[in-house]
Amino acid sequence: MNDRPLILITNDDGVSAKGLKELTEVMRLFGNVVVVAPDTHRSGMSNAITVDHPIRIKKTIDEPGYQVYKCSGTPVDCVKLAMNQLLDKKPDFVVSGINHGSNSSISVVYSGTMGGAIEGCIHNIPSIGFSLNDYDPEADFSRAKIYVARVFQQVAENGLPPFVCLNVNIPKGDIRGIQVCKQTAGKWVEEFEKRTDPHTRDYYWMAGYFENHEEDVPGTDIHALEGGFVSVVPVNADMTCYQTFETMKSWRF
Amino acid sequence: MNDRPLILITNDDGVSAKGLKELTEVMRLFGNVVVVAPDTHRSGMSNAITVDHPIRIKKTIDEPGYQVYKCSGTPVDCVKLAMNQLLDKKPDFVVSGINHGSNSSISVVYSGTMGGAIEGCIHNIPSIGFSLNDYDPEADFSRAKIYVARVFQQVAENGLPPFVCLNVNIPKGDIRGIQVCKQTAGKWVEEFEKRTDPHTRDYYWMAGYFENHEEDVPGTDIHALEGGFVSVVPVNADMTCYQTFETMKSWRF
Q: Cα(A128)–Cα(A152) distance, rounded to whole angstroms?
């Protein structure tokens, strides 16, 4: 099985998540698979790395063409450790997910799933983050998996430019097709819930809602999802805003 | 002091860091200041948010026009909590830093300092992340502060487009001026150090080095820093790679 492509899989819902198992099932059709995933839930971890304490890893499955490791670090740590310590060669693809819940619009910035995919493309590996718009831990991935395979095949065939990965979000329920989109402008409005513990000290739970600044705008990822389409946003790890160069020409430092 | 602008400050080195105190000193020249910073070192936290456990905050300084809070969360949590729970009005500016150590090139993606600044611009507040290219906890910020003031004044005068903040890196030693730059293409090559604990279990420390893919290329932030210039990179929280739309037109989903 050594001529098959090597596919590195991670996620942010943790090694036991259903979405990870479903993604692994699809990817094993296409190549040899190594899963390196957090040992627990690491949602909202973005591109965070662990610098202040050591990381542990443990192999839990070791079959020909299929290994699974659980890791105490973030999704980005998983990708870095895989490439530096666990794999014999550079992976041909990095895929992350399938996340339980959408990572459309500005959520790309906070998402650990996308953190894993972005890390892949920084190393010039074609990389994709997959998310299903359904937070249920027992969500039905059967329709989603068809589109995971379809997007993966296109990436395998066409490649991706360096520093660019894909943020793929899949609607719940029936799917009408695939649309290449831009990241919807919008933000999370944080409505923290303030509580008091038994020792009379206050604490806060994050509990926000999403505010869409491009409601009903065709070409945005949320518009695609609302119409029943899989949204595919090419995501750039070069965060330079080149347009702003123009407006800054008049600045007098 | 109520007609003065309200400036929200955060960082990722924690509320006790020298760089935070130096930044606060500069910002108090320009407006009323509220500091909301992590209670401990949160480097490498990127845009991470705390969703799995509650967040605590404690006010440590309360003077007219100047308050300080320490927070158990990430830099992004600090900005979100400040806006939602601690401030009477939306801040006029969000500034983050001064980080002990550079956040040039791809480090923008992992940096908690930049996480704080990016969060500000998502809320359409002119926001800047400042970093000094010196990891010493007792680093000399005296020259850096002049340029912090200069960049801040230009942002105050000209504003910034929505979803765009500035990543400002300041060289150690003498400074020759300011350059508007692009993010240098490059990556961290991870050289994890594997160790064994007294119970014979392995663990790994992250210990990478930087690989520059645009060595000596004028217009990149590292080139500016190496020449003794302050680098100013406009950073886009819209991560869509619009150029890739073209190449994806030929894809057959």
A: 8
pLDDT digits (tens, 9 = 90+) for B150-205: 999 999 999 999 999 999 999 999 999 999 999 999 999 988 999 999 999 999 99
Of A76, A236, A252, the CB nearest to B239: A236
pTM of the model as a whole: 0.96
Q: Chain B 96-115, CB below 8 Å of chain A: which residues?
A: 106, 108-110, 115
Question: pLDDT tens, B2-57?
Answer: 689 999 999 999 999 999 999 999 999 999 999 999 999 999 999 999 988 899 99
> What ipTM does the predicted assembly reach?
0.95
Q: How far is A238 from chain B (nearest CA, A)?
A: 7
DSSP assignment of A45-68 = -TT----SS-B-EEEEEEETTEEE
Of the candidates B49, B45, B189, B24, the residue with the CA atom closest to the CA atom of residue A207 = B49
Structural domains of chain A sorted by starting position, each given as residue range(s) with its CATH number in brackets: 6-184+216-248 (3.40.1210.10)
Stretch 112-171 of chain A: residues touching chain B, C-beta under 8 Å: 115, 118, 122-123, 150-151, 154, 158, 160-164
